[in-house]
Design a protein that fits this description.
The protein is of the alpha+beta class. 24% of the residues lie in helices and 37% in strands. The strands form two sheets. A five-stranded mixed sheet has the order 3-1-9-5-7, with no helix packed on it. A four-stranded antiparallel sheet has the order 2-4-8-6, with no helix packed on it. 21% of the residues are buried.
Length: 177
């Protein structure tokens, strides 16, 4: 009975791992996950009222990975974009199911360097939402983001001109009943 309880607990923990990790990262900022205080809309409106302008250009590079056992091809559509703090930008990732069965996946993300993640705000993103792809299906997924103008005036950001937005897709185990 004890062994059966341990096995059931381990199976349950594996199903809960991605959502629990997501909540942990969002709550603590661990792994470069962006924490939310003020909404992006509130930040944009505040900086527009204050007339904040930026001169510094930031290069945002994109990275894409899939977890072991995930038969998807997952790539950024562009390698990088250049954006000034206070500006928003749009980027795309492409996912393709290379298996012969439908697969549902979910992605997590992080921003590096970690200390810059607080200034990186996603307005629209596919992360943490389940994506179901049929065999051979390919989709483009947008990421609309904004870099807070306070990035430019923070002394801890001096010398940081490159950010990396990295996504990893994980396979979602589905009930076969």
């Amino acid at each position: 009975m004890y062994l059966l309880a341990v096995v059931a607990t381990m199976v349950g923990a594996s199903y809960a791992a991605v959502p629990l990790y997501r909540r942990f990262c969002q709550a603590t900022g661990y792994g470069g996950t962006v924490q939310r205080r003020e909404s992006v809309e509130e930040k944009i409106a505040r900086h527009a009222r204050e007339g904040t302008t930026a001169s510094r250009e930031i290069v945002v590079q994109f990275n894409a990975d899939v977890a072991d056992g995930m038969p998807w091809k997952f790539t950024p559509t562009q390698r990088e974009v250049r954006v000034k703090p206070g500006e928003s930008a749009l980027a795309f990732y492409t996912a393709e199911n290379r298996s012969s069965t439908p697969i549902t996946g979910v992605s997590t993300y992080n921003v590096t360097p970690m200390k810059a993640a607080v200034y990186f705000n996603k307005i629209q993103c596919f992360c943490f939402e389940e994506q179901r792809l049929l065999p051979g299906e390919q989709i483009d997924m947008p990421v609309f983001f904004y870099i807070d103008p306070e990035f430019e005036t923070d002394p801890k950001m001096v010398g940081i001109n490159n950010l990396i937005l990295s996504y990893t897709f994980f396979k979602v185990n589905e009930d076969q009943s």
